[in-house]
Amino acid sequence: MPKPIVVIVGRPNVGKSTLFNRITGTRTAIIENIPGVTRDRNYLDAEWEGKHFIVVDTGGFYPEADDEIIKQVTEQALFAIEEGDVIIHLLDGKAGLTPPDIELSKKIRASGKKVIWAVNKIDAYSREDRLYDFYAIGSEELIPLSAATGYGYDDFMEKLVSLLPEYKEESAIFPKIAVVGKPNSGKSTLINTLLSKKRMIVSPIPGTTRDSIDSICSYYGKKYLLIDTAGIRKKDKFSYSVEKYSLVRALKSIERCDVALIVIDSSEGITEQDQKIAGIVEEYGKGAIFILNKWDLMKNPENDYKILGKELLGKMWFMQYAPFITISALEKKRVTKIFPIIDEIIKERNKRIQTAELNRVLNEILSTSNLPSYKGRTVKIYYITQIKTAPPVFILFTNHPEAFKDFHIRHIEKILRNHFSFKGTPIRIYIKKK
Prior knowledge:
CATH superfamily of the largest domain: P-loop containing nucleotide triphosphate hydrolases
Distance between the termini: 39 Å
CATH class of the largest domain: Alpha Beta
CATH architecture of the largest domain: 3-Layer(aba) Sandwich
CATH topology of the largest domain: Rossmann fold
Radius of gyration: 24 Å
Order of helices and strands: EHEEHEHEEHEHEEEHEHEHEHHEEEEHE
Number of domains: 3
Largest sheet: 7 strands, mixed
């Protein structure tokens, strides 16, 4: 089963981001006393008493918005409800129940999802009488909570995890390949083309994510599990386009996969949404191939290849390890070249380097780096070792970890890649005190 998704929704300024930060143990979401600060959905992994899940923080719900950006924030919140497994409707215990709260509660009920109605900004037992106003929302159970101070938080989390569907890590019988990308980039056409090749045997099986079908493909005798969330054309219950907001849906597929095929519409160039989807792939440590689709529309292919390749390297600077390939899914050109690259990336993701070999490379790191000093003290690097694969994870031991900045770690990564490649996969480097 995929990791459950918990979505926090509510009016502006009710404390959604504060609750998100408390659940995830971070300060990722921006917190300001200004309605509408959280425009994009934030998402992070979370855990409570051994239960693992993903939390999504949404922007505020504005039922009668005129501004186009605010409308989009509201639509994204509604779309997140459709994609979530458990919905937290957060209410403001100081402001009391409002008509927008009631309207949002109706939309949540229409989704048929499991819901927690939590009344925030109640930080003491003496203030729990504020709950009475909120029973008009139609719920028999309201949970008092202060996301800021933690009052009522343990009871709230016990209720939350009791509603989570079962989650179990998927066994890696076959390489799991997710096809992701913004709407209309050609994902459906690519999947249909891959599944219709002569040498591929296709066996549809029920998808473990809602609205998706997983297919087992065999290409020259090797099997792959293709995670298909691309061919969805669902008329939703609300008045917005499901195809327009695809990040949560992409998140579901990426979280499950080994390698993500990031499909880009070559005729439009590299867009912000392409960058966001690629960012999710990198954050989750998955292998990646950039698929520059619709190459049949390019008028000057040779020149366009140089231009788009440069744009890709610039805008996807955080994933320069990921290869790219130009294809036309519609005309079935070069699509079969994808599978050898997938095989190569999976091999690189599972590569393990012996500690002795790593420490021979460490000498190069020491000879080509000006090690920083820390509070006037000499910084020493003792040794480096690999502790994990898929993706590869390394620990470098030193006397002063605080001295190492991001650019030092990027330099170490560059040297490791020069020696060991790790094509198509992110690697993680952690600096620790000996």
